[in-house]
Amino acid sequence: NAGVTQTPKFQVLKTGQSMTLQCAQDMNHEYMSWYRQDPGMGLRLIHYSVGAGITDQGEVPNGYNVSRSTTEDFPLRLLSAAPSQTSVYFCASSYSRANAGYPTDTQYFGPGTRLTVL
Amino acid sequence: GQNIDQPTEMTATEGAIVQINCTYQTSGFNGLFWYQQHAGEAPTFLSYNVLDGLEEKGRFSSFLSRSKGYSYLLLKELQMKDSASYLCAVRSSGGSYIPTFGRGTSLIVHP
């Protein structure tokens, strides 16, 4: 299994540009989520999905959109990039509550995308 | 909502023992996770506690007291490679079932 994959690894954008960060998992996990990580701020939840066709907002959703058309993929869209969105973005996946069971209900993280907005 | 507190930074000596504390406030506690994150890398799972007590896994142990809203991660026989950030994350039974993370503790291990 490849686990959780993210592309691109690095990206530089100009203010106002849009782009999509890709995330895919091959573990048949129902739950997927996007976090951003900034120095001193820990991991903050942007959006999450509990299954194909179902998404919801996390702690810091403004400026981002998501969709979940398949179980495997969960792309994150930046609509109009701003310097405040400069961050490291992590995608994660896990089993759902119904299928969770210690120790398998942990989250698995992708390698991250390092985004700079100029 | 949830409130999770852990120290920002700790230092320790190679071969020693270090304890990293995490306190939390949440409604409907449903599990606490510890993750390790090396600089420039993704977090990786270390331990999970949902019942009170100590979970031991090699050099790492994690303790939970639900009544006190308190957990700690104990690292024994410290090695230089243990220099990393340690993230405490709490899951609640209501809402998304997605854990909320603390700000992490940066551990520096000196020779």
Number of strands of chain B: 11
Quote the average pLDDT of chain A. Answer: 91
List the chains of the largest interface with their residue counts: A-B, 28 and 21 residues
Order of helices and strands of chain A: EEEEEEEEEEE
**Overall outline of chain B:** globular
> Helix and strand string of chain B, N-terminal first?
EEEEEEEEEEE
Task: Note the main sheet of chain A.
Answer: 7 strands, mixed
Envelope shape of chain A: globular
How many individual helices of chain A?
A: 0
The rounded Rg of chain A comes to 14 Å
Helix-strand makeup class of chain B: mainly beta
Structural class by SSE content of chain A: mainly beta
> What's the tally of helices of chain B?
0
Distance between the termini of chain A: 36 Å
pLDDT < 50 stretches of chain A: none
Share of helical residues of chain A: under 10%
- The number of E-state strands of chain A comes to 11
Reconstruct the topology from this structure:
The complex is a heterodimer of chains A (118) and B (111).
Chain A: E1 4-7, E2 10-13, E3 19-25, E4 31-38, E5 42-51, E6 54-57, E7 64-66, E8 76-78, E9 87-94, E10 108-109, E11 113-117
Parallel strand pairs in A: 2-11
Antiparallel strand pairs in A: 1-3, 3-8, 4-5, 4-9, 5-6, 7-8, 9-10, 9-11
Chain B: E1 3-5, E2 9-13, E3 18-25, E4 29-37, E5 44-49, E6 53-57, E7 60-65, E8 70-75, E9 84-92, E10 100-101, E11 105-110
Would you kindly provide a written description of the structure presented here, covering whatever features stand out?
The complex is a heterodimer of chains A (118) and B (111). Chain A has 118 residues and is mostly beta strands. Chain A has no helices and 11 strands. In chain A, strands 2, 4, 5, 6, 9, 10 and 11 form a 7-stranded mixed beta sheet that branches. Chain B is mainly β. Chain B has no helices and 11 strands. In chain B, strands 2, 4, 5, 9, 10 and 11 form a 6-stranded mixed beta sheet that branches. A 5-stranded antiparallel beta sheet of chain B has the order 1-3-8-7-6, with no helix packed on it. Chain B is globular. The N and C termini of chain B lie far apart (40 Å). At the A-B interface, strand 4, strand 5 and strand 10 of A face strand 5 and strand 10 of B.
